[in-house]
């Protein structure tokens, strides 16, 4: 159930777990996915369910819009990734290759690539146009819980981090990708070379989410060790550890226009933290 105080309206899905939500770029449509095997598209103005997308054979783990908003990408426990046309609700592509549950699939900022993380300990990068797996990364020793693309403003800072380790390294334009795993580590990859360029170690339990700070200079992560951590990835060190919740911290995100980071937890609380 989703409620809004301003309108008093609620959205109802079947009484099963909702695993992920995503806005399309204009903010007019919201996608949700669920353990009932479906994806639903919601009108964020009238609060109606516009379409229900059927096609996965098991729990749908994540949803992500391409930048144009015309297509939606989903990941599922049925080991597949699907691309859906938003206007018709039809599945236009199915990507197969993972050997276990696909935890998350996210679209690159240019809309050309999909990165996916799986229970098979691998990350795959796919070309949407051809359905080809461009890169397979096997740097983690456990389930890959999350993946995220680096925004373009991270590029100079990542290159500084690379050259700090190897002063002779050539500058790269990426794209770059970050991942978090149940092996308690966070890793950054240069997809142009298919190599892991940064590993961050410090969490004491499963890493649930890791994303780049809006400045591009830091990585922020949360984990089942109940903490929120800030990483200076150039120097490969954790600069701040916050005991954020009383239970597992499962998700985080940044406010788009204000200096806040928001965390969610199994303790049934969301908290807003000011970035200083």
Textual characterization of the structure:
This protein is mostly beta strands and 276 residues long. The chain has 1 helix and 25 strands. It has one helix at 155-165; strands spanning 2-3, 10-11, 18-23, 29-34, 38-43, 49-54, 60-65, 71-76, 80-85, 91-96, 102-107, 113-118, 123-127, 133-137, 144-149, 176-181, 185-190, 195-201, 207-212, 219-223, 227-232, 237-243, 249-254, 260-265, 270-274. The strands form 7 sheets. A 4-stranded antiparallel sheet has the order 3-4-5-6, with no helix packed on it. Strands 7-8-9-10 form a 4-stranded antiparallel sheet, with no helix packed on it. The longest helix has 11 residues, at 155-165. The chain is globular. The model is unreliable at 1-8 (pLDDT under 50).
For the structure shown, list the relevant keywords.
disordered N terminus; 4-stranded antiparallel beta sheet; 276 residues; 4% helix; mainly beta
